[in-house]
Design brief:
heterodimer, A: mainly alpha, 16 helices, 0% strand, B: alpha+beta, Glutaredoxin, 3 helices
Chain lengths: 369, 78
């Protein structure tokens, strides 16, 4: 069986594909700052108005203009699609914009400077949180790893960062929120962070430093310095807009495809189809989901339609969450990239500990919910 | 003038190399853009995010794909 690959080839991680060139960054000036604030307020107002208008508009279009019957298969599917597509896209634009602004405060250099003086435990927690807000691309995983280790960030803390950065993903968070509500989104955020913190802590305790390629420690001479980019208010807003253009510009077809699949399920597929073999009672479905998920590689936007299809057909939440985390958190391309600095025993420990964490999360949710 | 692009061979690195070549062509500098793909060589520049643009041994940008015009500005600026 060949490895299923969604959305991107194994050589080019999804976050590195189709880069949008950055617009020239203007220096922030005071009069410009005022104008930016005004435009920002106008933009937010327009966003809120659009968001409020979606639901009535979708209802009117499907049951009024198209004349579809309420409660019919087609009517419900169309209404779901017309409501969810603009809703999720609007949420995506807002969140990516906000995250883009937050990220303009956290460069890799700055995160490294924050982590450099930290012990384990506190360091693991900080690293996992910073993993969410620091701009990260798995093609930069190796220079980042070396950069952290060079300035004396403990191995376990560095690994906490490298686990959380891909696994806790803002796009996945938005899509989960938009499609399944805030509870599922919060579960994903909290469990993702917990796995990153605990797995990094355990890996740190295992004293695996000898399995880091020796030359990494030989090249230790860099100091924990960072250059602060002087952006100003206008510059940060521009960064947010750039993030929207780059990220939303890339993932919107996936989002629409995902919602279309969801709409079909919503209208047509009988509930409980998968319940017999992916439901709570089948304990083995969680490890099976992890085993299938690890060799798969997909960006967060590409995996959500599958999540939606599985949940809609009656698969248990824990099983689906475990599958999703295995796909986006433990990816074969990233492991291959990390092999340049980590020797096989450390890679095996990394995959083993993180995989176990995902497994426990899956079982926990199947047991609790 | 020596122009190098640091990156382990991802799509963004290729894009930056292409943009740098365009900039060089536009200025008529007639120098080759050197790709540095070996991770040990990259780490000698102490960058933590790729792709990075290096001019005459100095890191000018890291972790982003500059457009050809931005690279032209950097090359003219020294």
């Amino acid at each position: 069986m060949s490895l299923p690959v969604i959305g991107a080839s194994a050589q080019a991680p999804a976050c590195c594909a189709n880069p949008a060139p950055e617009a020239p960054m203007a220096k922030a000036l005071h009069p410009q700052g005022g104008r930016t604030a005004l435009l920002l307020l106008l933009g937010l107002g327009a966003w809120a108005a659009a968001y409020a208008a979606i639901h009535p508009l979708a209802e009117w279009l499907s049951f009024g203009a198209f004349g579809l019957a309420r409660g019919s298969h087609l009517g419900e599917a169309v209404a779901f699609f017309l409501y969810d597509t603009p809703k999720v896209l609007l949420l995506l634009v807002l969140i990516v914009f906000v995250v883009g602004i937050i990220r303009s405060f956290f460069t890799a250099e700055r995160t490294r400077a924050i982590l450099a003086g930290k012990r384990e435990s506190v360091g693991n927690v900080l690293a996992a949180l910073l993993g969410v807000v620091t701009p990260f691309c798995s093609c930069s995983a190796v220079p980042l790893f070396i950069g952290f280790v060079e300035v004396g960030v403990p191995l376990g803390v560095t690994l906490s960062f490298l686990i959380s950065a891909p696994m806790v993903n803002e796009i996945a968070l938005v899509l989960l929120f938009g499609l399944f509500g805030w509870k599922v989104a919060a579960l994903y955020l909290v469990t993702g962070l917990t796995i990153a913190i605990v797995a990094g802590f355990i890996l740190g305790r295992m004293k695996l430093e000898r399995f880091v390629e020796a030359w990494v420690y030989e090249s230790m001479k860099a100091e924990a310095t960072f250059e602060r980019e002087q952006l100003g208010f206008t510059g940060r807003v521009k960064k947010g807009l750039e993030a929207v253009r780059e990220i939303v510009g890339k993932v919107w077809p996936w989002v629409i495809a995902g919602i279309a699949v969801g709409a079909g399920i919503h209208g047509y597929v009988p509930e409980g189809l998968l319940a017999s073999f992916m439901g709570k009672s089948a304990w083995w479905s969680v490890p099976a989901a992890v085993l299938i998920g690890v060799p798969m590689y997909s960006n967060a936007a590409g995996i959500i339609p599958i999540v939606e299809a599985l949940l809609g057909k009656g698969a248990a939440l824990g099983t689906v969450l475990a599958f999703m985390m295995a796909v986006i958190g433990l990816s074969l391309p990233e492991i291959i990239i990390l092999r340049k600095v980590l020797r096989p025993p450390l890679i095996a420990a990394f995959v083993g500990v993180v995989g176990t964490g995902i497994l426990l999360v899956g079982w926990l949710f199947n047991a609790v919910i | 003038m020596k122009i190098q692009v640091l990156g382990t061979g991802c799509a963004k690195c290729k894009q930056l190399t292409a943009n740098a070549e365009k900039a060089v062509q536009e200025l008529g500098l007639g120098v080759a853009v050197e790709k540095v793909e070996d991770i040990r060589e990259i780490m000698k520049f102490s960058v933590m995010s790729t792709p990075a643009l290096v001019v005459d041994g100095k890191v000018k940008s890291a972790g982003k794909v500059l457009g050809p015009q931005q690279i032209v500005t950097i090359l003219q600026g020294g």
